[in-house]
Design a protein that fits this description.
By secondary structure, this protein is of the alpha+beta class. The protein contains 3 helices and 8 strands. The strands form 4 sheets. The protein has a two-stranded antiparallel ribbon with strand order 1-2. Strands 3-4 form a two-stranded antiparallel ribbon. Strands 5-6 form a two-stranded antiparallel ribbon. The N and C termini lie far apart (89 Å).
């Protein structure tokens, strides 16, 4: 005879989307699955979701930071999520207010800039710093 250590309730209870164990008490339903309250956390950092806000990426729950990290939508300057307008330059994404000249800090949101050693410069600063007259 097979003896089971599970109660009848546990045998027929839904399985948690996080730990795959039976859910017999409080449940969260999200992402087409049910979860223990303590198991419904960011897949990356394991932190609980503040104010009930989570982001789905490839079927997994994420906090805002890790969702944007996986989606490639973190600002290269401040490392914070970008929602709304974005500037894509030098193989990175930036908040418009963070894409600035590396020397004079003038916003480069007009789209014209010069790149030197992976840093953006306005045309004026680029000419002053790296123009032909300054070369040795």
């Amino acid at each position: 005879a097979v003896v089971s250590t599970q109660s009848t309730g546990e045998m027929f209870a839904p399985k948690c989307g996080g730990c795959n164990k039976a859910i017999v008490n409080n449940v969260i339903t999200a992402l087409k699955r049910q979860w223990h309250v303590e198991c419904f956390v960011c897949y990356e950092c394991k932190n609980r979701f503040g104010a009930g806000t989570y982001y789905e990426h490839e079927g997994k729950p994420y906090c805002e930071l890790h969702y944007h990290q996986h989606r490639g939508s973190l600002c290269a300057a401040c490392n914070k999520p970008i929602s709304g307008r974005v500037i894509t330059a030098m193989r990175n994404k930036f908040h418009p207010e963070h894409f600035v000249c590396a020397f004079c800090i003038t916003p480069l949101s007009k789209g014209t800039f010069k790149e030197h050693e992976s840093k953006p410069y306005c045309h004026t600063c680029y000419q002053k710093l790296f123009g032909v007259a300054n070369r040795v």
